[in-house]
Amino acid sequence: MTAHDQFRHWAAAMIAHHYGSPRAGEATHGGRELYQSSTMGALLDGVYDGDVTIAEILRHGDFGLGTFNHLDGEMVILDGICYHLRADGTATAAADTERTPFAAVTRFKTDNTLTFTSPTNRSDAIARIDSLIGSKNLMYAIRIRGRFSEMSTRTVMAQTPPYPPLIKATEGQAETHCTDVSGTLAGFRLPDYDQGISVAGYHLHFLDDNHHQGGHALDFHMTRGDAHICTLSELHLSLPRTPDFLAANLATAGSAEQIRQAEGGH
Questions:
Q1: Fold for domain 27-262?
Q2: pTM as predicted
Q3: Is residue 28 scored above 70 in pLDDT?
């Protein structure tokens, strides 16, 4: 090690001692960070096997969503616990050793809160949140805790090689409809320019309070609830080095429409 390298290590240690070292998933320049593994474009092209474990994802955040290898269901992360939402609508805690081809996480800290005191549907809830966020050019983590008179979700089924493109894989997705249920919607509102890297607009997954059922939220009617909003201004994109990802066609024409259809038309 050169004298210059020794000085750099010493200086870094002094700064960390004085100010504290940032945890994984925390931004270093004042803005909160969204950590994402792989891209939606890769999922569109059928890249359903990743090399990142749930334990690694949880190093970068305590809140988020994604999917599991083989496209086996949906993922939701709440309060540092990762849940595996399966095609039959059931939910269980995911094992640390499970792997994911796509996940997005952050460390959730509430910046704004919106209370819903009267019945509202999905589109009205989104419109009210949009009126509160200020700029559509930043990223937002959204957590809605409420009582729902109706909740419609879908969960993709595990796929087997050779994998079909995402738009084909979601054609036979299982849909679940439940009534009078309490739970949490967790996800993100991302800018239009992020389409293809992630999902532009709102991407929300649902988990009931008992942590027994959930899925990708298609539609809902909420009796009452509270929306918590966390503003994010930094993106950490971690790309896989698996053979499937390296060979994928990530410049597919019409990707925005394909994502819209795969996500349920919203």
A1: 60s Ribosomal Protein L30; Chain: A; (3.30.1330)
A2: 0.86
A3: no
